[in-house]
Write a structure and sequence with these properties.
four-stranded mixed sheet; UDP-N-acetylmuramoyl-L-alanine:D-glutamate ligase; about 350 residues; 14 strands
Length: about 350
């Protein structure tokens, strides 16, 4: 595994234990949390990554820390804290789709502040991109993450936000939607699924129309839309729309962590191509979009072939891209209202 010691990306958000029901009906503990998964997935793809939140001194916290260390992730807070580790009970339906129940009061990964996150980022002279999303978009944590996101935009770092909504555990859905949309205003890159957009109640009769509306009403340069077995779409502020999907069906064990691995592939490709935060405002070549999407789709496909989130390495992603053919298309006409 390639380990990059130069910090390029900092990630802030949940690290928890997924308790996933196995075939025997027992709950199997797995390292998880969307941002934790993303952090490991980035490191496995050769990206120098810093995890910003504290971890617990309990057994689960030590396992989470060891998982990050094994993949070469650096901890902004190496000393563990007294608070306990977050837990999520995960149920998976016949299609491999998960649902979650979270236990997150008084937990380690929430024992931080905007000032602490900002100070940790300021320590790295090579940091160029920050990521967050999922449970970090809870209105209860607004005072932690929104000021930090504002500070990162001011520092001219690329801000990547994964909507990755968890509506079933948010008691006030209208307030949750409003807060998520406010948080997305800090993003240079937005990642969202078709289910996320439907939950946000964004105008549009299709997921593509909803994605275009969200991008048009944000400051982001691009939006990556995931659509399950239908693949993914990349929309740019210049009005370009690109699609990619696997040419053959993928055997799905479960989809836990698929979106996190997709985003890791996308971010790794953004960095490898040296793209600035506003790259989507200019005309985007199809070859560049194909590289971004094919790496993201390959990363997600490798994840769903295994139980739980087991992020692929850079070599595994490259091997899959070489061994399989993915479909890639671009819309003949640009989005209405382009440039966005």
């Amino acid at each position: 595994m390639q380990i990059n010691t130069k910090i390029e990306v900092a990630a802030a958000g949940e690290a928890l234990i997924d308790l996933i029901r196995n075939d025997a009906g027992l709950l199997q503990p797995c390292l998880g949390g969307a941002v934790y998964n993303l952090t490991r997935a980035l490191a496995r793809q050769g990206v120098g990554t810093l995890y910003l939140n504290p971890l617990s001194r309990d057994r689960f916290g030590r396992q989470l820390a060891q998982g990050l260390a094994d993949d070469g992730v650096q901890l902004a807070i190496p000393e563990p804290v007294q608070q306990v580790t977050s837990l999520a009970v995960v149920g998976v339906d016949d299609q491999g789709h998960p649902d979650y129940s979270f236990y997150r009061e008084g937990v380690a990964d929430r024992a931080t502040t905007a000032a602490a996150l900002t100070a940790a980022c300021a320590q790295s002279s090579t940091l160029s991109l920050v990521c967050t999303g999922a449970l970090a978009l809870s209105p209860d944590d607004a005072q932690t993450y929104l000021p930090w996101l504002a500070s990162q935009r001011e520092a001219r770092r690329t801000v990547v936000i994964d909507a990755n909504l968890r509506p079933s555990v948010m008691p006030d859905l209208p307030a949750y939607r409003k807060h998520v949309l406010a948080a997305l205003q800090y993003a240079d890159v937005i990642k969202a699924s078709d289910e996320d957009l439907a939950c946000l109640d964004i105008p549009g009769s299709t997921a593509l129309e909803q994605a275009a509306h969200l991008l048009r009403n944000s400051q982001a340069a691009c939006l990556a839309l995931t659509r399950g077995p239908d693949g993914a779409t990349l929309l740019t502020r210049s009005g370009r729309v690109f699609h990619a999907r696997e040419s053959q069906p993928v055997v799905v064990v479960d989809t836990v962590g698929a979106g996190d691995c997709f985003l890791a592939g996308l971010v790794a490709a953004l960095l490898d191509n040296g793209l600035a935060s506003n790259w989507g405002e200019a005309q985007v070549e199809a070859s560049l979009a194909q590289d971004l999407l094919s790496r993201a789709v390959a990363s997600a496909s490798l994840c769903i072939m295994q139980r739980g989130c087991v992020p692929p390495t850079r070599a595994e992603v490259q091997a899959r891209r070489s061994a399989t053919v993915s479909e890639f298309t671009q819309d003949a006409t640009e989005l209405a209202g382009a440039s966005l």
